[in-house]
Amino acid sequence: MKHPAYEQLRQVSPIAGVVLENNPSAMTLDGTNSWVLRAEGHGGGIVVDPGYDDREHLNALLGVAGDVELVLLTHHHGDHSEGAAWFAEQVGAPVRAFEPSLCRDAEPLTDGERLSAGGLELSVLHTPGHTADSVCFVIDGEQPHVLTGDTVLGSGTTVLDDLGDYLDTLAELADVPSGSLGLPGHGPELPDLLVTVKEYREHREQRLDQVRAALAELGPDATARQIVELVYADVDPVLWGPAEASVRAQLDYLRRRG
Fold first, then answer.
1. Are residues 223 and 114 in the same domain?
2. Whether 166 and 62 share a structural domain
3. Same domain, 57 and 122
4. Per-residue 3-state assignment (H helix, E strand, C coil) for 80-132
5. 213 with 182, same domain?
6. Domains: count for the chain
7. Which range of residues forms the domain containing residue 176?
8. Which of 137, 167, 192 is the last residue of a domain?
9. 156 shares a domain with 221
């Protein structure tokens, strides 16, 4: 018998479906995307980012995921990873992540590692910037799929821990095949991930130029908050907190480079 939440699975491609967690916010957009991956006709599957320890959502995942061979995490933030241990226990699958403390019955992921599960072949890309432990997963195929977590969102831009790392990550993602389908941790899928990566790189350079201009106007000792109030004056103040974190990352980047 199908779980009553069965219809919550939205099939995005022949191999990827998504269940949207009911946790919308300014930071999570419509909510967290929990991805269910499986080759056509294959018995077992993969679940990426089960989300918070939200039993209604996790039970919905249980109802649609079928047999699960592997649970993967894109990074440690609770809206992606908190429910992973409970979910994995229910399905009897290991949990793998770049951060060792998140793993269950398995070794941590490594950059460049190849995974085989759900009838699919995936490559692990360590993509720091949003967090130090962020990873993306590239699925080979006629149309490659890239699960981006919070490294690239379905709309808007992401908050950063380290801008230098993030710019290096965007440069690496610029090498994914043209036409790759982006499957983000929040927001709608991206028909061509490279288009969004290009937009992100341009946006980051524009923001750096704005921060440089703000420093010239306010002085070299200006705080992140002062710069946010100048550069983000046209942005809803509810987002100034996350913007301040990104500006701090930009200031660190600029000051490290003189």
1. no
2. yes
3. yes
4. HHCCHHHHHHHHCCCEECCCHHHCECCCCCCCCCEEEECCEEEEEEECCCCCC
5. no
6. 2
7. 6-192
8. 192
9. no
CA–CA separation, 249 and 258 (whole Å): 14
Cβ neighbours for 6, distance < 8 A, ≥ 6 positions apart: 63, 64
From 73, 61, 76, select the one nearest 136 (Cα to Cα).
73
Residue 1 placed within a domain: no
> For residue 78, how many other CB atoms are within 10 A of its CB?
11
Residue type, 203: H
d(CA 189, CA 20): 12
Q: What 3 state SS string does the chain have?
A: CCCCCHHHCEEEECCEEEEECCCCECCCECCCEEEEECCCCCCEEEEECCCCCCHHHHHHHHHHHCEEEEEECCCCCHHHHCCHHHHHHHHCCCEECCCHHHCECCCCCCCCCEEEECCEEEEEEECCCCCCCCEEEEECCCCCEEEEECCCCCCCCCCCCCHHHHHHHHHHHCCCCCCCEEEECCCCCECCHHHHHHHHHHHHHHHHHHHHHHHHHHCCCCCHHHHHHHHCCCCCHHHHHHHHHHHHHHHHHHHHCC
Q: What is the pTM (predicted TM-score) of this model? A: 0.91
Give the confidence band of 2 by pLDDT, cuts at 50, 70, 90: very low
Same domain, residue pair 148 and 245: no
Phi, psi angles (nearest 5°) of residue 8: -75, -15
Q: So which residues are the catalytic ones?
A: 79
What digits encode the pLDDT tens for the residues 7-55? 489 999 999 999 999 999 988 999 999 999 999 999 999 999 999 999 9
Same domain assignment for residues 99 and 215: no
CB 228 within 8 Å of CB 244: yes
40 plus 81 within the same structural domain = yes
